Amino acid sequence: MFQSTSYTGTKEENYELLLKQLKALLEDEPDVTANLSNASSLLNQFLEDVNWVGFYLWKDEQLVLGPFQGLPACVRIPSGKGVCGTAVAERSVQRIEDVHAFPGHIACDAASQSEIVVPIFKDKEIFGVLDIDSPSKGRFDEMDEKYLARFVEVIQTYI
Protein backbone atom coordinates (compact mmCIF):
# COMPACT_ATOMS: atom_id res chain seq x y z
CA MET A 1 0.00 0.00 0.00
CA PHE A 2 1.18 3.51 -0.81
CA GLN A 3 1.27 6.15 1.88
CA SER A 4 1.65 9.88 1.40
CA THR A 5 5.24 10.97 1.92
CA SER A 6 6.65 14.13 3.43
CA TYR A 7 9.40 15.36 1.17
CA THR A 8 11.91 16.99 3.52
CA GLY A 9 15.15 16.86 1.55
CA THR A 10 16.56 19.19 -1.04
CA LYS A 11 14.62 19.58 -4.25
CA GLU A 12 17.01 17.16 -5.98
CA GLU A 13 16.80 14.59 -3.16
CA ASN A 14 13.01 14.82 -3.24
CA TYR A 15 12.93 14.23 -7.00
CA GLU A 16 15.21 11.20 -6.59
CA LEU A 17 12.78 9.80 -4.00
CA LEU A 18 9.89 10.51 -6.38
CA LEU A 19 11.59 8.47 -9.13
CA LYS A 20 12.05 5.53 -6.76
CA GLN A 21 8.38 5.74 -5.77
CA LEU A 22 7.33 5.82 -9.42
CA LYS A 23 9.38 2.70 -10.23
CA ALA A 24 7.86 0.89 -7.25
CA LEU A 25 4.34 1.81 -8.40
CA LEU A 26 4.89 0.71 -12.00
CA GLU A 27 7.16 -2.32 -11.79
CA ASP A 28 4.54 -5.04 -11.33
CA GLU A 29 1.64 -3.52 -13.27
CA PRO A 30 1.36 -4.02 -17.05
CA ASP A 31 -1.75 -1.86 -17.58
CA VAL A 32 -0.87 1.51 -19.13
CA THR A 33 -4.01 3.29 -17.91
CA ALA A 34 -3.44 2.16 -14.34
CA ASN A 35 0.21 3.21 -14.49
CA LEU A 36 -0.50 6.64 -15.94
CA SER A 37 -3.27 7.16 -13.38
CA ASN A 38 -0.91 6.38 -10.52
CA ALA A 39 1.86 8.48 -12.08
CA SER A 40 -0.41 11.54 -12.34
CA SER A 41 -1.60 11.05 -8.77
CA LEU A 42 1.96 10.66 -7.49
CA LEU A 43 3.10 13.85 -9.24
CA ASN A 44 0.06 15.78 -8.05
CA GLN A 45 0.83 14.74 -4.49
CA PHE A 46 4.54 15.58 -4.88
CA LEU A 47 4.50 18.90 -6.72
CA GLU A 48 3.58 22.13 -4.99
CA ASP A 49 1.85 25.04 -6.66
CA VAL A 50 0.27 23.08 -9.53
CA ASN A 51 -3.35 22.98 -10.63
CA TRP A 52 -3.28 20.23 -13.28
CA VAL A 53 -1.13 17.14 -13.76
CA GLY A 54 -1.84 14.56 -16.40
CA PHE A 55 -1.33 12.86 -19.70
CA TYR A 56 -2.51 13.27 -23.24
CA LEU A 57 -2.13 10.21 -25.46
CA TRP A 58 -1.46 10.22 -29.20
CA LYS A 59 -4.42 8.64 -31.04
CA ASP A 60 -5.67 9.14 -34.59
CA GLU A 61 -3.10 11.87 -35.31
CA GLN A 62 -4.04 14.00 -32.28
CA LEU A 63 -3.57 14.15 -28.53
CA VAL A 64 -6.50 12.77 -26.55
CA LEU A 65 -7.04 13.37 -22.84
CA GLY A 66 -5.72 10.57 -20.63
CA PRO A 67 -5.41 10.04 -16.87
CA PHE A 68 -5.07 13.28 -14.92
CA GLN A 69 -5.56 15.15 -11.65
CA GLY A 70 -7.31 18.53 -11.74
CA LEU A 71 -10.28 20.28 -13.28
CA PRO A 72 -11.92 18.92 -16.44
CA ALA A 73 -9.68 19.57 -19.44
CA CYS A 74 -9.63 19.93 -23.20
CA VAL A 75 -10.24 16.51 -24.72
CA ARG A 76 -8.45 16.72 -28.08
CA ILE A 77 -5.40 18.74 -29.14
CA PRO A 78 -3.98 18.68 -32.69
CA SER A 79 -0.26 18.47 -33.31
CA GLY A 80 1.28 21.94 -33.33
CA LYS A 81 -1.56 23.55 -31.34
CA GLY A 82 -1.00 24.92 -27.86
CA VAL A 83 1.89 23.91 -25.62
CA CYS A 84 1.05 20.19 -25.75
CA GLY A 85 0.69 20.10 -29.53
CA THR A 86 3.94 22.05 -29.90
CA ALA A 87 5.76 19.49 -27.73
CA VAL A 88 4.54 16.78 -30.11
CA ALA A 89 5.35 18.70 -33.31
CA GLU A 90 8.83 19.65 -32.08
CA ARG A 91 9.40 16.38 -30.18
CA SER A 92 10.83 18.40 -27.30
CA VAL A 93 10.08 19.61 -23.79
CA GLN A 94 8.17 22.88 -23.63
CA ARG A 95 8.77 24.89 -20.43
CA ILE A 96 6.61 27.99 -20.61
CA GLU A 97 7.00 30.71 -17.96
CA ASP A 98 3.90 32.66 -19.04
CA VAL A 99 1.28 30.72 -21.01
CA HIS A 100 -0.47 33.97 -21.97
CA ALA A 101 2.62 34.98 -23.94
CA PHE A 102 2.70 31.63 -25.79
CA PRO A 103 1.24 31.97 -29.30
CA GLY A 104 -1.82 29.76 -29.67
CA HIS A 105 -2.01 28.74 -26.02
CA ILE A 106 -5.10 26.61 -25.34
CA ALA A 107 -6.66 27.78 -22.07
CA CYS A 108 -8.36 24.78 -20.48
CA ASP A 109 -8.12 26.32 -16.99
CA ALA A 110 -8.13 30.11 -16.71
CA ALA A 111 -6.06 29.86 -13.51
CA SER A 112 -3.04 28.39 -15.33
CA GLN A 113 -0.12 30.79 -15.68
CA SER A 114 2.83 28.51 -16.51
CA GLU A 115 3.16 25.04 -18.00
CA ILE A 116 5.64 22.28 -18.70
CA VAL A 117 5.03 19.53 -21.24
CA VAL A 118 7.30 16.51 -21.72
CA PRO A 119 6.80 14.27 -24.76
CA ILE A 120 6.56 10.52 -24.23
CA PHE A 121 7.92 8.10 -26.82
CA LYS A 122 7.44 4.39 -27.48
CA ASP A 123 9.79 2.80 -30.02
CA LYS A 124 10.90 6.31 -31.08
CA GLU A 125 7.30 7.24 -32.00
CA ILE A 126 5.23 9.76 -30.08
CA PHE A 127 3.06 8.07 -27.46
CA GLY A 128 1.74 11.16 -25.69
CA VAL A 129 2.78 13.92 -23.33
CA LEU A 130 3.02 14.65 -19.63
CA ASP A 131 1.38 18.04 -19.05
CA ILE A 132 1.63 20.06 -15.84
CA ASP A 133 0.08 23.48 -15.22
CA SER A 134 0.66 25.96 -12.42
CA PRO A 135 -1.33 28.99 -11.28
CA SER A 136 2.01 30.84 -10.84
CA LYS A 137 4.13 32.38 -13.59
CA GLY A 138 7.63 30.94 -13.88
CA ARG A 139 6.79 27.94 -11.65
CA PHE A 140 9.02 25.43 -13.48
CA ASP A 141 12.80 25.67 -13.57
CA GLU A 142 15.66 23.71 -15.14
CA MET A 143 15.69 21.17 -12.30
CA ASP A 144 11.97 20.51 -12.75
CA GLU A 145 12.57 20.00 -16.45
CA LYS A 146 15.48 17.63 -15.84
CA TYR A 147 13.62 15.47 -13.34
CA LEU A 148 10.28 15.49 -15.12
CA ALA A 149 12.13 14.26 -18.23
CA ARG A 150 13.60 11.47 -16.08
CA PHE A 151 10.09 10.77 -14.71
CA VAL A 152 8.90 10.29 -18.29
CA GLU A 153 11.92 8.06 -19.05
CA VAL A 154 10.77 5.74 -16.26
CA ILE A 155 7.23 5.72 -17.64
CA GLN A 156 8.56 4.91 -21.12
CA THR A 157 10.07 1.69 -19.80
CA TYR A 158 6.62 0.51 -18.67
CA ILE A 159 4.52 1.29 -21.76
Global mean pLDDT: 94
Contiguous low-pLDDT stretches (5 residues minimum) are none
Beta-strand level of the residues, as a percent range?
Answer: 25-35%
Shape: globular
Q: Taking strands numbered 1, 2, ... along the chain, how are they ordered across the largest sheet?
A: 3-2-1-6-5-4
**Can you count the beta strands?**
6
The Cα radius of gyration reads: 15 Å
**Major β-sheet profile:** 6 strands, antiparallel
**Helical proportion, percent range:** 25-40%
User: Helices and strands: which structural class?
Assistant: alpha+beta
End-to-end separation: 22 Å
Number of helices: 4
Helix and strand sequence:
HHEEEHEEEH
Task: Explain the layout of strands and helices.
Layout: H1 11-26, H2 32-46, E1 52-59, E2 62-70, E3 76-78, H3 82-90, E4 94-96, E5 114-122, E6 125-134, H4 142-156
Antiparallel strand pairs: 1-2, 1-6, 2-3, 4-5, 5-6
Report on the structure:
It is a single chain. Helix 1 runs antiparallel to helix 2 (32-46) and helix 1 (11-26) runs parallel beside helix 4. The model has no long low-confidence stretch (mean pLDDT 94). The chain is an alpha+beta fold and 159 residues long. 35% of the residues lie in helices and 26% in strands. The protein has helices at 11-26, 32-46, 82-90, 142-156, and strands at 52-59, 62-70, 76-78, 94-96, 114-122, 125-134.
